[in-house]
């Protein structure tokens, strides 16, 4: 019985695991790779669109500067999701979210950018932590 439960847990983790959403062009991006692709004062919006595709969000400041945002989220199911009855008490997903924000001047040239990664922990059930 013990082996069967462990086998089901391993099989469930292997089969049910990952979900991703957002712009896959930044899925494996790091500060180093981004800094090699975006040159402040040189890279144009056309270059950025060619490298990363369309942004998920754009905004404009009162001084006419434009901001583009890119996001990518990768989540993996928690192992408890696949254990009957235990999943009623505690289940969910965890993973990482990457965000790339690029700031352009009025001439549509990159002036600055920021790349960040944050941890996500989505829990549900009676015990959420």
Explain this structure to me?
The chain is α+β, with helices and mostly antiparallel strands. It has one domain (18-77, 91-124): Beta-lactamase Inhibitory Protein, Chain:B, domain 1 (2-Layer Sandwich), CATH 3.30.1450. Helix content is 26%, strand content 39%. It is built from four helices and five strands. It has helices spanning 2-16, 31-37, 45-52, 86-89; strands at residues 18-22, 57-60, 66-77, 91-104, 110-124. Strands 1, 2, 3, 4 and 5 form a five-stranded antiparallel sheet that branches. Strand 2 and strand 3 (66-77) form a beta hairpin. It starts with a helix and ends in a 5-residue tail after the last strand. Mean pLDDT is 80; it is low at 1-15.
Choose one word for the global shape. Answer: elongated
Provide a count of the helices.
4
Output the radius of gyration.
20 Å
Structural class of the secondary elements?
Answer: alpha+beta
Total individual domains = 1
Our estimate of the beta-strand percent is 35-45%
Per DSSP E runs of 2 or more residues, the count of β-strands stands at 5
| Share of helix, binned | 25-40%
Main sheet record: 5 strands, antiparallel
Distance between the termini: 28 Å
Write the layout of secondary structure elements.
Blueprint: H1 2-16, E1 18-22, H2 31-37, H3 45-52, E2 57-60, E3 66-77, H4 86-89, E4 91-104, E5 110-124
Antiparallel strand pairs: 1-3, 2-3, 3-4, 4-5
């Amino acid at each position: 019985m013990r082996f069967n439960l462990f086998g089901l847990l391993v099989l469930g983790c292997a089969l049910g695991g990952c979900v991703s959403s957002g712009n896959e062009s930044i899925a494996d991006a790091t500060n180093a790779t981004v800094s090699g692709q975006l040159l402040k004062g040189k890279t144009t919006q056309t270059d950025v669109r060619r490298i990363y595709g369309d942004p998920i969000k754009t905004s404009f400041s009162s001084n006419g500067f434009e901001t583009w945002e890119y996001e990518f989220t990768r989540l993996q199911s928690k192992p408890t999701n696949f254990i009957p009855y235990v999943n009623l008490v505690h289940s969910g997903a965890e993973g990482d979210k990457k965000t790339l924000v690029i700031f352009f001047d009025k001439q549509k040239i990159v002036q600055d950018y920021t790349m960040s990664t944050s941890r996500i922990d989505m829990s549900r059930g009676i015990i959420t932590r």
